[in-house]
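Before a colleague's protein record goes any further, I have to sign it off. My question to you is simply how this chain folds and whether the tokens agree. I do not need a full report, just your reasoning and any doubts. This is what I was given:
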Amino acid sequence: MNRTALRFALYLSIIALGIAAPFIVPGIRTQLSFLWIMIVFALTWDILGGQMGYNSFGNVLFFGVGMYACVLIQQHSGLSYFPALFVGIAAGGLVAVAFAALLGWGILGLRGHYFAIGTLGLGIAAAEFASGWDLIGAGSGLVTPLYPGAVGGRETFFYFPCFILAIVTFLSLRRLYRGRFRLAINAIRDDEDKAEAMGLHTTLYKTVAWCIAAFFLGLAGPLVGNLIGFIDPRDVAFASSSYGVWMLLMAILGGKGTLWGPVIGAVVFHITQELFWTYLLGWQRVALGLLVMLIVIFFPTGIVGWVRERWPERFGQRVDEQAQRTADQ
């Protein structure tokens, strides 16, 4: 079986398993929904952090903006539940892109640690602003519209949009990374000054990359908000200390700068985290901190990078056996 057939079989297996999962294990539908959202988190963070070399801690801003935009439309549009939900999800993505475009031309002029600190400030500032805005519940939070279906139906219903969003995000980035876009943002990562000198409009590409990440996060926000049923500005919408950091950790764990790395990292991280919360209650944050240390120490290039170093020939890399033996000695 050639690689194309294997890849097709892998994609088909993932889709089949994803469709069947909520019926096979209905008791963990919410956790499965969050697994797909975590994959979206990791993939969108890697657009800037892995492919472009800009470590952003502020992507959670777009997640929260999309979440609030959707719920406001659901509450004030006068539409019934499902039309208002779908209009709100679309609006969440568009509003997030608008924020990314407006902020991008300014903050993407920063580089290195300055950019990371600046984006961290965005998430914190957004949480404080939302905590003081009465229209969206301020610090008391906001209850989403009640799902009109049967008890337990909400978890099943929102599982599938989360699953579809993760698949669409993956396939969209896979297509983008096959063209000029990936070459351009990789050039920015390798040497931005040289890329500019060669005529590449770096600010434009950086802004477009951020807008792409914002769009998918703006779609994810409404799904999570309605799945949970309650939006807290600090702990859900603009949760910089959790979602904002997890995005980075998942991409690094799997292997940033790759397509499958963030996916693998998200799956491993989410499963490990759920096990910590189940069996180490009270010590789960300590265990999570130790996990972060292990990621940095033992997997500096991520799981995919480690596998590539161990078995380079499986990734189409030719290895000089004599040189390899010398290096091993």
